[in-house]
Amino acid sequence: MKKTFLKTSGILALVTVLFVSTVSFKSDFFEIAKQIEIFTTLFKELNMNYVDETNPAELMDTAINAMLEDLDPYTHYWNEQEVQAARINNAGEYTGIGATVGIKNNAITIVEPYQDYPADKAGLKAGDEIIKIGNITVADFDEDAGELLKGAPNSKVDLTYKRQGKTYTTTLTRGAIEIKAVPYYNMVDDNTGYIVLSQFNRNASSETVKALKELKEKGAKNVILDLRGNPGGLLSEAVNVANIFIPEGELITSTKSAVEKYNQTFMTTRKAIDSEIPVVVLINGRSASASEIVAGSLQDLDRGVVMGARSFGKGLVQRPKDLTYGTQLKVTISRYYTPSGRCIQSLDYWNRDEEGKAVRIDSKDYNEFLTRNGRKVYDGGGIEPDINLENSEYSSLTNEILQQNAIFDYATRYYYSHNPASPADVKLTESDFKDFKNFLSSTDFEYQTYTEKQLEKLKNSAEIEDFDEELKAEFQAMKKIIASSKAAALDAQKEEILSLLTDEIIKRYYYKEGLYNYYTTANEEILAANKLLDDSSKYQQILK
Asked: Looking at residue 25, what is its pLDDT?
């Protein structure tokens, strides 16, 4: 305990020095030189004289990351491995096992094996927990164990994993993995093409161009561009994707910064692939950054109709800055603005609440802007769709269920007890929903409402003022009411939860392609978008 306290105290000192130095850099060169000298001597004395053995690299990582946490969640320090991972993500290809993975319970969990890639060919399934890679036990590996899954092309790796309580082993051969920015495109009907753009890596615009051209050859007279769940990526690719539908010489976005050289405008530079084809852009609360640049530019220029739910609201631009020894600082350098002049940043990281959390910009503080045709749009809260779809926005309870992986874990259990003949046969019933609720009760799922948090604060205040015994009965009664209301809230979100469960379950049997095929005939947002595109007069009326 003493060691932890002293170590924490030392880290706080380092963080304080580093933070002061960054704040004063722009205004006082002497002050930053002074603070760096203080930091250097402190760091040296700490490591030479501390009562227990210290790890300088670990201390430095902790100090740097703690300092950056006080800024915004997008400013990061990247070590060598993280720099390489970012390059892979932007390049769209790497050598590995071909699966999305996550760390859970001291194991690497397979989140999604990519069809026909090494993990899939070796029989790995979503939900499998890799506990050993070669001779290395994942739980004992201090660094990012996921890096052990990467390696030279055609190299072999032995894996030990758990599935449904049983332990298995397999050997797979690593291969070149291509991460597609456009994982799916197809015709919804005879007139409408559908393109899924899942990320903005270096191939985003070229893959979107290819998809659009092929769909037009198949007879597409309209197009649905699906940006739901797209977290963003390269700003340059966002401009290039917008350029597919917007003519040459149009402003797509501009950036403004305290540093003059980062004040830039980004225009379309090529002839559009099709500047006339009707476009519906689908977005939701997980569409961010580059996705919002595309949706915002098409909306501001009245080039397409945006449908779904309000986007995430990330109006900040980052740029990697090379440091020594192969490391990098990914630093927020500017805010970006849509063609109408609005910044859609929704969280204010520079004015935080009493708990230190960034505050959401209040809708009463939004500013009004006009699209090219004079339609009203607003800043400060992401991209507000032209048409809001109720089923595009999840409740806070559903988001918590997703965040705690309850949908994922239930789908894993479902997979091993059912065998549907096709995606259309995955039809969850009232009985399945009841089973899901029982599943939640049997796990460590916890959901604390805002009311519960406030009640807990009130209870603590009552204890301080010695009112707790007098109010004990009232607190217990209120807890029962809240528990009953939470159960009712779960039932109220039944359709939303069943839809998410259906999607995750279909993906287990038929991969992403099977899920997207199912979407073209059953997804309510896609059906709504297609219905609008079939009504050209209504489509044009929205834009005018």
From this structure: 44
Q: What is the pLDDT of residue 4?
A: 43
Tell me what pLDDT residue 15 has: 44
**Given CA atoms 440, 444, 445, 448 in this order, what sign does their dihedral have?**
positive
Sheet holding 279-283, edge to edge: 184-187, 192-196, 222-226, 279-283, 305-308, 387-388
Paired with 225 in beta bridges are 195, 281
Q: Which CATH superfamily is domain 184-393 in?
A: 2-enoyl-CoA Hydratase; Chain A, domain 1 (3.90.226.10)
Average confidence (pLDDT) over 273-289: 97
Average pLDDT score, the chain: 89
* Consecutive H or E run containing 239: helix 235-245
Which pLDDT does position 230 carry in this prediction?
A: 97
- The DSSP result for 328-392, as a single string, is EEEEEEEEEE-TTS-----EEEEEE-TTSPEEEPPGGG--EEE-TT--EEESSSSPPPSEE-GGG
- Give 93-178's CATH code, choosing from 2.30.42.10, 1.10.555.10, 3.40.50.2300, 1.20.1600.10: 2.30.42.10
DSSP string, 415-482: HTT---SSGGG----HHHHHHHHHHHHHTT-----HHHHHHHHHHHHHHHTT-HHHHHHHHHHHHHHH
> At CA 428, angle to CA 508 and CA 444, rounded to 5?
70
Radius of gyration for the chain, computed over Cα atoms and rounded to the nearest angstrom: 26
Catalytic residue set: 289, 300, 314
How many C-beta atoms surround the C-beta of residue 479 within 10 A?
A: 13
Nearest-angstrom CA–CA distance, 178 and 192: 27
Q: What is the mean pLDDT of residues 121-126?
A: 96
Dihedral, CA atoms, 94, 95, 98, 102, nearest 10 degrees?
-80
Element (H, E) at 193: strand 192-196
Given a contact cutoff of 8 angstroms between Cβ atoms, the answer to whether 299 and 344 are in contact is no
**Predicted structure pTM score:** 0.85
Chain centroid, CA 519 distance in Å: 21
Pairing of the two strands 175-178 and 184-187: unpaired
8 A C-beta contact, residue 336 and residue 251? no
Residues 437 and 303: their CA atoms lie apart, in Å, by 44
Q: What is the pLDDT of residue 27?
A: 55
The answer to whether 10 and 50 are in contact (CB under 8 A) is yes
